[in-house]
Amino acid sequence: MRRAQIILILLITLLIPLQGNAVTRAFNDREVISYQLYFNWKFIWIKAGTATMTTQPSTYGGKNVFRTSLITQTSRKIDRFFVMRDTITSFCDLDLSPLYYRKGAREGKRYYVDEVWYNNQGSKSIATMRHLTADGEIINEKHTYERNVSDMINSFMRIRSMDVSRWKVGHAETVYIAGGSSLTTARLVLNGRKTIKGDDNKKYACLEISYNEKDNGKWKEIVKFYVTDDRRHIPIRLDLNLRFGTAKAFVTSIK
Q: Which of 23, 48, 54, 180 could form a disulfide with 37 if both were Cys (CB 3.0 to 4.6 A apart)?
């Protein structure tokens, strides 16, 4: 379930542009996107929980910024098997450069906190990381990367603001996502375009994008997600390939 939650965040939180790609914000005011989560159990689809992502103007360090929060929680039915209550917060400046990231996660009987402070300097990134383990141990790390890195939430906000109109089927991007104690390298591939129906009973023209990680030297598809084929690139549906089954997330409302 923890892997499902991580991929869900990569849903609603993926994609980072290659260095040097310009972005124009796809949002300027408060925005709330909600999702219904489903899990396939012995050929039956059951409601597994909900997720809500909110973006709004805020302040950080005395500067005007954007604050994005993602809250995910399992339903009462799923709580009997696995409890998940996660809150993720990300701050970025008005140019969408990451400033701060925090994830507080209760997963089962385990609770932990990941934090990252960013200092991007040209083509380099300095990430100061702090991880509070489930055992109460605090691990501090500081890394300098020869590339721009970002957290999962900020990565998603940046891709939403990119012009992908020139992307062809098969176009791939390498992504670098910093967490509380590590950097994840993955690949995103444009599979094509489809019409997708959300749980709000609306149909959306979407881009189909595949998220892949290397497994024994080969790229393996972990998740397939669909974002609106317009300047806002709102995630409408997510298909997750898990070790123990399949999960999906469908948009329920966009405000």
A: 48
